[in-house]
Amino acid sequence: MNTAKRSLGEPKMDPAVARQRMAGMPWFPRFSLTVGGLGFAPFASGTWGSLPPCIAVLGLVVLLPAGLGWVIDAVLVALLVWAAFGCVRWTAAAEEALGIKDPSCIVLDEIAGMSIALLGLHWPLRAMAD
Asked: 69-80 in b/e burial notation, b at 16+ Cβ within 10 A?
């Protein structure tokens, strides 16, 4: 197996090998688990995987009028539900395809964590902007 050791001892699979091993999975679960392929980044895949909720919140804070802050929370809750469902439903199949537990290319859990962390954050951001 083409792996290198990470600092905590978990195996880090080469992104090309991971992509090849996951090729047999259906498109949508593979796309979801790797967050559009961000999980295949050659370094800091978890960091890259946590960016979409941050970008969504930043974009919505800028674009939405002040009275529609609840839309930001609704988007984050939708991301959280999608991530939780996907992690529960598809991670075992991905781990089996990859041959390792908690593969670094699976970053959908980062979406869930960042969505929880960002819930409600837009309220103080808007207050500072006013």
From this structure: beebbebbeebb
Write down the pTM of the prediction.
0.81
56 Cβ contact list (under 8 Å, min separation 6): 72, 75, 76, 79
Cα separation, 25 vs 94, whole angstroms: 8
Rounded to the nearest 5°, which phi and psi values hold at 32? -70, -50
The residues spanned by each domain of the chain are: 3-129
pLDDT bracket for residue 11 (50, 70, 90): low
CA-nearest of 126, 110, 4 to 52 is: 110
For 11, residues 6+ apart whose C-beta sits below 8 A from its C-beta are 1, 3, 4, 5, 100
